[in-house]
Amino acid sequence: MPKLTIDGKSIEVEKGTTLLAAAQQLGVYIPRYCYHPKLSISGNCRMCMVEVEKAPKLLTACSTEAAEGMIVSTTSDKVKAARRDVLEFLLINHPLDCPICDQAGECGLQDYYMDYSLAPSRFRMADKVRREKRRPVGPHLVLDKERCILCTRCVRFCSEVTKTSELEVMERADHSYIGLKEGKALDNGYSLNIADICPVGAFTSRDFRFKSRVWFLKKVPTVCLGCATGCLIEAHHNENIIYRLVPRPNPDTNTWLCDHGRLTYKSVQAGDRLSKGVIKNGLIDLEPALREVASRIDEARTSVAILGSPWLSIEDNAALARLAKDGVKTGSYCFDFNSEQGIKDGILINKDSAPNTSGVKAVGAAHGGIKLAELSRRITAGEIKLVLTEARAAGLIKQALKSAGTRLIVFAANRGEIPPDTYATLPYASYFETPGTFINYQGLRRRTEPPVKAPEGVKPLWAVVNKLAAYSGDSLRLESAEDALEGIELK
Amino acid sequence: MENILLKDNVADLEAYFASGGYRPLKKALSLKPAEIIDEVKKSNLRGRGGAGFPAGLKWSFIPKDAPGPRYLVCNADEGEPGTYKDRELIIKNPHALLEGMAIAGFAIGAGHGYIYIRGEFAAETELLDKAIAAARAKGFIGKNILGSGFDFEIFTHRGAGAYICGEETALLESLEGHKGQPRLKPPFPAVKGLFGCPTVMNNVETLAAIPAIIDKGGEWYASIGIGKSAGTKLFCVSGPVNKPGVYELPLGTPLMELIEKNCGGLKPGKKLKAVIPGGSSTPVLTASEAGAVNLDYESLAAAGSMLGSGAVIVIDDSQCMVKLLQVLARFYHHESCGQCTPCREGCGWIEKILNRFEAGAADEKEIDTLYSVADGMMGRTICPLADAMAMPVISFVKKFRAEFEAHARGETCGKGRGLEDQRTGGSALRSV
Questions:
Q1: Which residue of B has its CA nearest to A40?
Q2: DSSP string of A13-79?
Q3: Domain boundary among A65, A89, A113
Q4: CB-CB neighbors (< 8 A) of A176 in chain B
Q5: In B266-379, which ranges are E strands?
Q6: CB contact residues (below 8 A), chain B span 203-242, against chain A
Q7: Which residues in chain A are closer than 8 Å to B367, comparing Cβ atoms?
Q8: pTM of the entire structure?
Q9: What is the pLDDT of residues B154-191, one digit of tens each?
Q10: What is the least distance, in Å, from the CA of B331 to any CA of chain A?
Q11: Cβ distance A377 to A309 under 8 Å?
């Protein structure tokens, strides 16, 4: 346990701790470009140099291990001069095209220039090294080689995290550039992380490119529902539009975010987002749609089946369970879902593509119900006249429905989700529009926070269910999402 | 005194053996590895590649009880402009190198030695391969050397033309099949070197001195030279002297003795202006500084320069220092591996400024810019390539500022020397 002093403050750290990490523990920030906590140490940018007493040269804080009795300064004149020089070196061949660069506002060069340099340029514009700009690399990224500072975070990400090694530094000296290896395309399922970890505007997201200035974006911490992993994310939005999802690194679940998860927000803003009901392929206003669905349920009553969904929150599943038990009063309801869970690619993507299989189990534990196989049997046997469920969950009983010709009523957020031969569809607020509780594959409780509002009149599913019951003269007394959670035990 | 390294008529194995060769190996194999290392320590032999690190000490850094293989690597990637001594040594005395490697391999417990040789040395590689085959046929390398039970194989590996691969960790990367870029240190190669195993790397000249040290003893070797600069050193002289070439001299010999006596002085009508004493990266000495300095590690350090690789570049008063520096800058700009920011960006910047000086388009303020760019590179990178660019810039600007000022004023220096001349073989920097 070496004891050292950084900027006059003493600290004792674990053996093997770097000066950068030790400083971080003391709340002393050391600027860096190539260092990334989840990637190997490269030590190439030279931005994190600090002065250590008795060392003949400045040392890189990212690669130097703390040793007993070290006296470290991160603010000495030598250190300040080194930072100024490194910034100048990085900027001489930089195109300075901030006005058209997406990174502007969250750029390592801009930020550190303001913090550590503010020196005027001594370099002749005509001498700048010109490199290839705007090269699409893979489906999600654009590469601007002029903006690149060659920190190699992207190269190390591809070799160490995805282990696909698409990128490499080509050439030497100031004609070096990041290039795709021959025959490779940058499409490894996690490529958008590169736009995040690129400290400058070299790699930008093709999806986010030119959509918004980052300083207009508001940030909401929420959860990715792309699979059972339940990564913590941040939704960046402005004026009721989501612009991008980025990971919220945490020790439990994720540092990164997969490309699939990143683009899940698209459905909310897609052209087929439902704001009205659908009866037999025809759009219909919400109120008449609700009334129609309520009367079909009333007709069928005890031969109604209600199926929960691992794509819905615990609140919304619980509301469906209450509808079955206390409203429709049918015995044919099912909250029995099982699926194999676990990370399938060694990084983040789960074997279970539904976000809430574990959460539905908690609802089933509280409210009972029948097994999925039993539900299918009852449908196939013709005992069920109407099935109410969520659009994607309907896929789980597809075969049974087909053979029996049972009437299917679903909740869906997008028209594209609606299974063929659905009788009626009711829209509901997605989890980018309303809060919801989920349990991920690790058993961790996850709560979504809505960055945007649902289309006019579209309510959370639990509220729609409450209203459906009311039309049939039953009261579920669901005033809020929390009411639906009554009786459910959550860890 | 008699040469230790550069000998005539010992290139063939038979001749080498007849002159007493491979006896030191037999002697070494009867010693304990630690005794060999002690002998080398006693000899005060220092690394001849440029850094001058004590060789015996370097060998002793190999962890005693580390499991797995250890490696010996001979650095024959002679790339420092002005340097051509290892090549001469390989041509004239290849078996001294091979014998030195076998002894070093035994001392550090290595079973394999690699000679990483500059790619352009195709003929020398062939020569070494033949020497290796001959030595193997006689049982001096290979399995169970001289019945001792010690196995040691030597392989040659040609580089692909990058100067940076002369830096030891970049060399290891290249030898492993990767792009030649220096590694972060620590860990040092003695702990984690080739293929992640403990590795000793020595220059050709260092290893070739080992047989004599084992033969005659460390104390004998330490008695040659001066103080901590023990033994003889190869000096390769280029520039307008009457007899440029490689000379073996005891360390501590006055620089002017090398130029006047060994090289026969400057060509008629030439006047000494400056000397780069240890390869293109070492700080330049003015004529008067050169006149007062001796060729050993300490004297040259005291004079503000370095012994380096022993490449003495003589510059006469017909040469333009701005042009010479431009040539150097073009070299280092081309050879920077591009890993560290200050070197990657700084080398190119320096060349561009110098191009403007040469074109008469620079203003006087840019002399200070030049100096401060070099200063900003100094000591701030993973390997010393940035220093190798910065040191000549700083010393040229400091000592020959008037020539830069004249260029900035648009006065032609009228010398028109440098790159163009060089292509016809007339420049001082013939190896650039």
A1: B184
A2: --TT-BHHHHHHHTT-----SS--TTS-----S-TTEEEETT-SS-EETTTPBP-TT-EEESSSHHH
A3: A89
A4: 338, 344
A5: 272-276, 285-286, 294-295, 311-316
A6: none
A7: none
A8: 0.93
A9: 999 999 999 999 999 999 999 999 999 999 999 999 99
A10: 11
A11: no
Chain B contact probe: residue of A32, A41, A44 with most B CBs at under 10 A:
A44
Strands (E), A206-271: 218-223, 232-238, 241-247
The total of structural domains in chain A comes to: 2
Residue type, position A6, single letter: I
Distance of alpha carbon B159 from alpha carbon B80, whole angstroms: 14
Percent residues over pLDDT 70 in chain B: 95
- Worst-scoring range by mean pLDDT, A121-130, A453-462, B389-398? A121-130
CATH value at residue A315: 3.40.50.740
Residue A81 lies in a domain: yes
**Backbone dihedral region of B177: left (phi > 0), alpha (psi from -120 to 50 degrees) or beta?**
left
Q: Is the ipTM of this complex over 0.95?
A: no
Residue of B nearest to A122 (CA): B369
User: Token match 């099912």: residue?
Assistant: A334
SS (H, E, C) A110-177: HHHHHHHHCCCCCCCHHHCCCCCCCEEECCCEEECCCCCCCCCHHHHHHHHHCCCCCEEEECCHHHCE
CB pairs < 8 Å spanning A and B: 88
Question: End of a domain among A30, A65, A89?
Answer: A89
- A394 lies in which domain range? 277-484
Q: Which of residues 308-367 of B touch A (CB under 8 A)?
A: 333-342, 344-349, 352
- Can you give the CATH number for the domain in which A15 is found? 3.10.20.740
Q: Which residues of B touch A148 (CB under 8 A)?
A: none
Q: Is A99 contained in some domain?
A: no
pLDDT band at B335 (very low <50, low <70, confident <90, very high): very high
Chain A residues close to B338, C-beta within 8 Å: 150, 169, 171-176
Question: Which one of B178, B181, B184 would you mutate to disrupt binding with A, by most A Cβ within 10 Å of its Cβ?
Answer: B184
Please indicate, yes or no, if residue A184 is contained in any of the structural domains: no
> Is residue B418 scored above 60 in pLDDT?
no
Instruction: Classify residue A153: in a domain, yes or no.
Output: no
